[in-house]
Amino acid sequence: MRLIEHELLEPVQLFFDKAAENGLERREGQIEMSSEICEAVVSKKPIAVEAEVGIGKSVAYLVPIILQYFRERRQIIIATSTIALQEQLEKDVHTVLKMLGVKADVIFATGMRNYLCRSRLAGCMKKQRDRSDILLIIKAAAGQGKQLRTQLGIEVNDRLWESICIKKVGEKCRDCYYSGSCQYSQLRFRLQYSNSIVICNQNMLVSHLIQCDSGQTGIFNPSVNTIVIDEAHNLESKFRDAYSKRMSRSQFRYELISAEKKLKNNKLIKELRDMYNSLLKALRNDITIQKRNADGDMQAYYFNEGEYIKDLLFKIRRCLAELEKKLGYELSSLTFLQELCNVRKQNIIWLENDDELTFCICKKDIRKDISRMLFGKDICTVLTSATLTSGSIPEPVEKYRYFLDALGFPMDKGLISKPKRSPFDYDRNTILYISPNMPYPKHELAERKKYANSAIEEIVKLLAVTKGKALILFTARHDMEYVFGKLSNIGLPYKMMIQSENSSQKRRLNKFKTDTDSVILGTGTYWEGINIEGKALSQVIIFKLPFPAPDPITEYKMSLVKDPIMEIAVPEMIIKLKQGAGRLIRSASDRGIVSILDPRLSSLSKAAYKEMTLNALPEKNITESIMELQEFWNRINEKKENI
Ligand code: SF4
């Protein structure tokens, strides 16, 4: 990317020239990224920048956008994907403001469900006397202005929180007794009318953009013309989520319960309930088969509509239409099912959440919509993350192709930056082990067991090298549970832990950090949600290459391209693999091993994506020998002790 000289570049360069005085290490990649963002900000163009760990990407984009903020005094939005990153960003914004010697209003914005609704709390207190102690503490905290869940000073379980958090804002808020002291209402007002620096999550940004696109006011100030999206590799799924319409089992049941209140003992309602239960039973059976056959954890299940299901859906719709007539008001479940059955060509239909069983519909092509909202005229949209590229072709545009295509990025007018490589010394501090002994992973149950049993033998040897201190990443929960069960029974001298699904997850990770030799097994969010510096995480073991599990959305994307494996499955796998392997090195002093058990990357493999995948990883020392691995480990530990 060629840089054009302009007035913003000078103060940005001055900032980095003085960086050492401010305690910042000079990093060329960071300065380069900052200068490129300067150009995007000044010329109001979108830009995509991949910046690996250690670049200091938040400072790289904050310096130019904050300097520009003081010129234009327009609200700016910085959106990221997790609350932990939002909190980190808030600190970074204040640090940069301090270094620049300026002050600005910074808003930490989070979704309404994180806030307490004092009106719902009052209603709940009337009903639930048995919980009055907790509710009294929450009431007292709320009265002191602590209405964010994390500020209450007491742990509130998810079920209780669901009954007292804000679910909707609107008419009800206008007449609310608490509206004057409602923190969320105050936040909405500030977001709408102030020219502040806003740090929010991607869901909030996406819902603002969709509201504005459909002619509504939106959440943020309409003057916004600079948007930064950090962790942008998650953005497409956030849009897909926001565009999806859903109907869960409870929504359907709730509608029938409301109808029953009006039409007591109505035969039609009983009939509907029975038919819906039969429908759910048939779909659940089908989901069980899909899960059994899938290679990885499925997030979305196929809606396989055989004659039986088709017939049930027809009868349910007919009964709902009759019920609607009797009730004299519209039933949302009927509207939903009409769309599900009648508008098939433009939509992707899938099922989610096996317990609650939710029907989901989303229009197929959302790229044009995303493109219109994100890359409109006179808006600078910065897309950044440590993992945006998935190709090995030297041209930056080709490296980013998969990510940019999914968002409808305007290749003609947007700026595409050369990926910024990590300044950390991977050559000295890391090694990549590829297992040469593993069988090829296959779908069949017996073959999967064979793979898992061979993997266990490898894992035992690998854990002996680092004496535990490892994170083992899986693509399927059933594989993880099988391996965990076996490893736990061998009597290994390290504490074995497995990812939990509930709120004790944070505690488990803390235990992993403090019990230095322990081993933790994880899937799903563990591929990108773990940030553990130091010795406790000295080895990341990848059980299988993270190819996307089959699902209706990926299948739709695959149907649009010539080579679905190389154009969709491989780029998705590479981005996820980079995320997972990236858990190892979080700071300049981190050292360790990335081990990939999947033989599709081994020297004997003829997989077309092998070189491309290996090139995408920063670890360039590669071995297939455990002995070499042990030597490497001994060497780096000797070095550490000598320092
Ligand atoms: S203003 Fe709305 S969100 Fe706030 S406490 Fe009242 S009803 Fe709840």
Q: Topology of this structure?
A:
Layout: H1 9-17, H2 28-43, E1 47-50, H3 57-72, E2 76-80, H4 83-100, E3 106-108, H5 118-127, H6 132-143, H7 158-164, H8 171-174, H9 183-193, E4 197-201, H10 202-213, E5 226-229, H11 235-243, E6 245-247, H12 249-262, H13 267-293, E7 301-302, H14 307-327, H15 332-342, E8 347-352, E9 358-363, H16 367-374, E10 380-385, H17 396-407, E11 415-416, H18 426-429, E12 430-434, H19 445-466, E13 470-473, H20 477-490, E14 496-498, H21 505-514, E15 519-522, E16 539-542, H22 552-559, H23 564-581, E17 592-596, H24 610-616, E18 622-623, H25 626-642
Parallel strand pairs: 1-10, 1-11, 2-4, 2-5, 3-4, 5-10, 12-17, 12-18, 13-15, 13-16, 14-15, 16-17
Antiparallel strand pairs: 6-9, 7-8, 8-9
Bound molecules: iron/sulfur cluster (SF4).
Residues 117-119, 166, 169, 172-173, 176, 178-179, 182, 184-185 line the site of iron/sulfur cluster (SF4).
